[in-house]
Amino acid sequence: MDVEKAYKDANALLEGHFLLASGNHSARYLQSAKVLEHPKKAAELTDALAKMIRDAGIEVDTVCAPALGGVLAGYELARSLDVRSIFVEKDGKGGMVLRRGFEIKPGEKVIICEDIITTGGSALKAAQAIEALGGEVVAFASLANRGFCKRVGSSVTTKPECKLPSNIPLFSLADFTFEMYTPETCPMCKEGSTAIKPGSKG
Ligand code: ZN
C-alpha cells in the first residue's frame, strides 16, 4: 500500500514551517492522530502492519501501547492480529506503568505499538514496564517511523538518537525522514516566516 499517500489523503502529512518538540524546525510534520481519524482507513494500515509481523514469523499474545499517542494504533493492530490489546500510562516518575486491572502473564509475548516512532523513548519505557512484569517484548511496531531507528526491510540505518534495543525488531509501514534545522540555520526562518507548533501541546 502507498503509506505516504494514505497520510497525505488524511491530512496527516503537513507541509509548512513547524516548531518540533526538540526545538528544531522542519518543513514537514506528521500529525499522526489524523491518519487514525477514520477507523476503516486505520484498519487498512494496521492490517498491512500485521501482515509484515506475521510474514516475519513473530508470535504474539498481546499488543501494548504507551498512552496516549499509541492507544488507537495499538488497539487496531491488536484487532488486525486478533490478539489482546492493553496500554501502559505515565507513572509520574518518568516511566510507564500498567494500571486499570490489565495483567501480564510470565512469558507472555508482547508487541509494543506506537502510532509513530521518533527516537522510541515512550516505546522503550512501555517495554521496560512489560518486562518488569515478566512479559517478553518480541517486537516494536508503529505505523510511521521517523527514521532514527532502523525498521525491518528498510535501508535507513539506526541513528545515535534511537533508544530502542537493537536486538528486538521494529516493524513500521514507512520511513518519514524529514530534514530538520536549528532555528539559527532554518531556511524558512531566513525567509522571514514564523514556525508554528503543530503537535498535541500547541
Ligand atoms: Zn524556522
Widest beta sheet: strand line-up: 5-4-3-6-7-8
Structural class: alpha/beta
SS element count, helices:
5
Task: Estimate the helix proportion, in percent.
Answer: 25-40%
N-to-C span = 31 Å
Q: Averaged pLDDT, please?
A: 95
Please name the CATH architecture of the domain at 40-178.
Answer: 3-Layer(aba) Sandwich
Give every kind of bound small molecule, once each: zinc ion
Enumerate the spans where pLDDT stays under 50 for 5 or more consecutive residues. Answer: none
Could you tell me the strand content as a percent range? Answer: 25-35%
C-alpha Rg, in Å?
A: 17 Å
Please tell me what the overall shape is: globular
State the name of the first-level CATH class of the domain at 40-178.
Alpha Beta
Order of helices and strands: HEEHEHEEEHEEEH
Number of strands: 9
CATH topology of the domain at 40-178: Rossmann fold
Mind describing the biggest β-sheet?
A: 6 strands, mixed
Protein model, in words:
- With 202 residues, the protein is an alpha/beta fold.
- The chain has a domain at 40-178: Rossmann fold, CATH 3.40.50.
- The protein is 25% helix and 27% strand.
- It has five helices and nine strands; from the N terminus they run H-E-E-H-E-H-E-E-E-H-E-E-E-H.
- The strands form two sheets. It has a six-stranded mixed β-sheet with strand order 5-4-3-6-7-8, with helices on both faces. A three-stranded antiparallel β-sheet has the order 1-2-9.
- Helix 2 (39-55) crosses helix 3 (71-81).
- The longest helix has 17 residues, at 39-55.
- The radius of gyration is 17 Å and the shape is globular.
- It starts with a helix and ends in a 12-residue tail after the last helix.
- The mean pLDDT is 95.
- It binds zinc ion.
- Residues 17, 25, 183, 186, 188-189, 195 line the site of zinc ion.
